[in-house]
Amino acid sequence: ALIALNSTNKFLLATSVTAPFIPFLVVATLRLLAPDPLFYAIGRIYGDRALHWARDVFPGTGPLLDEVGTDGGAVRRLLHVLIVIMPNNPVCLVAGVTRFPIRRFVVLNVLGTIGRVLLMWWIGHLFSDQIHDLLDVVARYQRWFLLASVVLVVAYLAWQVIGRRGLIGGVEELEDELGDG
Question: Is 95 buried (19+), middle (13-18) or exposed (0-12) by CB count in 10 A?
Answer without folding.
Answer: buried
